Amino acid sequence: MNDEIISKMKTQMKKTSENLELELGRIRAGRANASLVNDIMVDYYGTPTPLGQIASVSTPEARLIQITPFDKTALKGIEAAINMSDLGINPTIDNSMIRLVIPQLTGESRKDLVKEVKKYAEESKVAVRNARRDAIDALKKEKKNGDISEDVMHQKENEVQKQHDEYIKKIDEIAANKEKEITTI
């Protein structure tokens, strides 16, 4: 049972770090990145559909996103969805594709983005700490019920703490890489 507790905790921590990478991938860092637009919901024949499912998204240049819909009739819907999103970039229709030019970031906007990265990182750390707390509480409950000995509980607590420390370090690395990407001109 105690291996299930640790396995569940590892899964929660892994999902937390993966979610952080996804969230930070959506933050505009002055460079074109397909993840900025892939999840924008487009009204496609009356059904909200992620942009990445109805169009090819590429980044031919450092500050340009090119969107080529598989169905050319979706161009206007994609344009409307981009305009309604919080992306803040005006799309340009060019024949059968849409181009988004990513504006250069100002010093102030870079600072704001770094604050946002730190906020996401701290939320992820809290989630990892909560997973650790839940695992330790479950181990203590097992010990109280007599399912595991004191020695096994301390051994498992050490394992839980080790996993916690690894994921906190990983979150710090992910956030530091994103901050570097944002602050690099």
From TrEMBL:
Its main location: cytoplasm. InterPro entries: Ribosome_recyc_fac (IPR002661), Ribosome_recyc_fac_dom (IPR023584), RRF_sf (IPR036191). GO terms for biological process: translational termination. SUPFAM superfamilies: Ribosome recycling factor, RRF (SSF55194). GO terms for molecular function: ribosomal large subunit binding. Gene3D superfamilies: 3.30.1360.40, Ribosome-recycling factor. Pfam families: RRF. Keywords: Cytoplasm, Protein biosynthesis. One of its GO terms (cellular component) is cytoplasm. It is found in: Cytoplasm. PANTHER family: MITOCHONDRIAL RIBOSOME RECYCLING FACTOR PSEUDO 1 (PTHR20982:SF3), RIBOSOME RECYCLING FACTOR (PTHR20982). Belongs to the RRF family. Responsible for the release of ribosomes from messenger RNA at the termination of protein biosynthesis. May increase the efficiency of translation by recycling ribosomes from one round of translation to another. This is Ribosome-recycling factor.
